[in-house]
Specification:
The chain is mainly alpha-helical. It is 77% helix and 0% strand. The chain binds protoporphyrin IX containing FE. Protoporphyrin IX containing FE (HEM) binds at residues 32, 35-36, 38-39, 42, 48, 56-57, 59-60, 63-64, 68, 195, 199, 321, 324-325, 328-329, 332-333, 396, 399-400.
Length: 430
């Protein structure tokens, strides 16, 4: 019995490593490299519209779906059935989901960057992504609880469900818009107005509540925080969902206020800025972990506030861009870097992170690059200070260095031998 559990644990950890490695490849090449290239081109011409929308969207899709969503699917397969004490899913479902997802996201990137047969490939890639999601959903969402599972759901589960529905909505919109573009457009890019509304769903509607859900599950333990305020967390998700719906229907100011309200409630519910009651569990990572988690949540609030400002200004491309990267780099990437380095080595065969010092260097670089990017995008794009165009490429290279160090730290960690044989009974609670 125990042998079978250990064998399954090993197989799950191999599968998780495949998801993480794939996500890292998307993060580095189709995601960050293309983002840096776009930004260097925009800065050298001092014009935000000098890069093709298809290339910008290829970068955004690779980061949100190729990188972060691939991590989330892998971590979801690995952890959700254990955390909810569900009966196990068949491993082939996890691998089939991985294969369809990778082919879908890769095809999407290729046919937007090099528009060959894109009228067929774009809808096809969107269908593959949706099919992969449905496999994930039925594998980790519809299995009956095993014996010993708690009857009542904890509040973080509702938050993860809301986020999963956000992912489903994003993929459905992506498929619908891909078909429309294939039938009627001249290039493989979503129309600007639709893209803005779609991005609200895929960032605030999917990634933000997903990070809140996993924060609510893990941060009280990892940071020694006071017990979670469940009602506040559910209210936060309610406000956030209302904000996403308002944003999708182009009521951007109301949306911004609701999203900011939701973010404040999420912070209050997790009690992030209240004094800890127990020491943080940071023995396997850098001890600055709680500081960077708090900075990341500061970026979340900044992103929402910038969104309200952008909605009140007529030509606000720079403020929207700053808000988006405050959210995606300052909050989402920073949370993935912090929590990822805390949990992934343990999930992937009870390893310990290769270098805690590299983690610190990488987080300092990421936060520096993000601050320079957010500030100088507003100053340059909004024509407040022309010298800021020169800062933008520097910010891009600093962020590129940070993500590369993150990838190196994780890959070396996975290549090193495991410290102990994984124990499937204790792995989720340590
Ligand atoms: C080295 C780091 C990065 C650089 C240099 C970069 C660069 C860019 C540039 C130049 C744009 C075009 C719009 C604008 O000027 O604001 C853009 C858009 C975008 N980026 Fe990034 N980015 C980086 C990291 C990220 C990360 C980590 C994410 C997500 C996790 C992300 C998600 C997006 C999204 C969703 C868009 C909008 C795409 C669209 O309009 O459809 N970026 N990025």
């Amino acid at each position: 019995m125990m042998d079978r559990a250990v064998a399954r644990e090993k197989a799950l950890s191999v599968m998780l490593r495949a998801y993480i490695f794939t996500g890292l490849v998307f993060m580095l090449l189709p995601g960050t490299m293309l983002g840096v290239w776009n930004l260097i081109k925009i800065s050298s011409r001092e014009a935000a519209e000098s890069v093709s929308p298809a290339w910008i969207q290829a970068h955004g899709h690779a980061q949100l779906f190729g990188w972060v969503a691939t991590f989330i699917l892998g971590i979801g397969f690995y952890s959700i059935p254990k955390l909810r004490k569900l009966s196990p899913f068949a491993l082939w479902e996890g691998w089939l989901c991985w294969a369809l997802w990778v082919v879908g996201v890769t095809t999407r990137w290729l046919c937007t960057v090099y528009p060959w047969e894109w009228r067929v490939l774009m809808p096809l890639s969107a269908s593959l992504e949706l099919a992969a999601f449905l496999i994930f959903f039925q594998a980790v969402g519809s299995h009956r609880p095993s014996r010993g599972a708690p009857k009542a759901w904890e509040s973080w589960i509702f938050v993860v469900i809301a986020a999963t529905l956000g992912l489903f909505a994003s993929l459905g919109l992506n498929l619908g818009a891909s078909i429309q573009v294939a039938l009627h457009a001249a290039s493989p890019a979503f129309p600007h107005e639709f893209d803005q509304r779609y991005l609200i769903v895929s960032t605030w509607g999917f990634l933000v509540p997903m990070v809140w859900g996993f924060s609510a599950r893990w941060l009280p333990v990892f940071m020694g925080l006071r017990p979670l305020r469940n009602a506040f967390l559910l209210a936060a998700v309610g406000l956030n969902t209302a904000g996403v719906v308002m944003g999708f229907f182009e009521h951007f100011t109301v949306a911004g206020v609701l999203l900011l309200g939701g973010a404040v409630l999420a912070v209050v519910s997790i009690r992030l800025f209240e004094p800890s009651v127990k020491p943080a569990r940071t023995t396997t990572i850098h001890e600055s972990f709680p500081v960077f988690i708090r900075i990341a949540y500061g970026w979340l609030l900044t992103a929402a506030a910038l969104g309200i400002w952008a909605s009140r200004v007529r030509e606000a491309q720079g403020i929207w861009g700053a808000s988006r990267h405050a959210l995606t780099v300052g909050f989402i990437a920073a949370m993935v870097f912090c929590v990822g380095q805390r949990i992934l080595p343990a999930f992937c065969g009870m390893r310990t992170l290769w270098s805690a010092r590299l983690m610190l260097v990488m987080l300092v670089l990421l936060m520096t690059g993000c601050a320079l990017r957010v500030a100088s995008e507003i100053l340059a794009y909004q024509d407040f200070a022309p010298w800021a165009w020169k800062v933008l490429p520097v910010s891009a290279l600093i962020e590129l260095t940070a993500v590369t160090l993150f990838a190196i730290n994780l890959v070396v960690t996975f290549l090193r031998p495991a410290a102990v044989v994984p124990n499937p009974l204790t792995i989720m609670t340590e």
